[in-house]
Task: structure prediction
Amino acid sequence: MQKIFNHAIMKCNKCGKEIPEESKYCMYCGEPIADQLALEDGAITINVGIGSFVMNLVEHGTFEMGATAEQQQAESNESPAHKVTLSHDYYIGQTAVPQWLYRSITGSNPSKYTGDKRPVDSVSYGDAKDFINKLNMKVASQLNGKKFRLPTEAEWEYAARGGKKSQHTIY
Result:
């Protein structure tokens, strides 16, 4: 490896061209530079060929689920608030599934409000399960035997409230 202007340079294993060391993909042929999970501050970066997405670590803990005191508006089915304990750490997407990712995995984009960086919308539960199954097949080599799944309602709410770092966040 050589240094040019204080940036490390490496060669792409596929095309042999020189690229910056910090690159996730070769700018010439698109080859992923790292095919393994990249752990940074409890986050995992998953490469899917044309891009990557980040999963954040959520540490286990206990929280008040449902309409808590700091919420001004709540649906009737969100009361009463109750204590829930999640006993295992888990990962959850840093963002909702963007349309570019959904399209690259399924080959379609059912979204009414289009834009590659926008979250996919107009997806049924069956569509979501199909997406996850195809995603698991595509990136199985990066998951070390683990699999993607939909979060439970409690996992989603705990993560949306900030997990252990929460200061009674209204999500």
Q: What stands out?
A: DSSP finds three helices and nine strands in the chain.
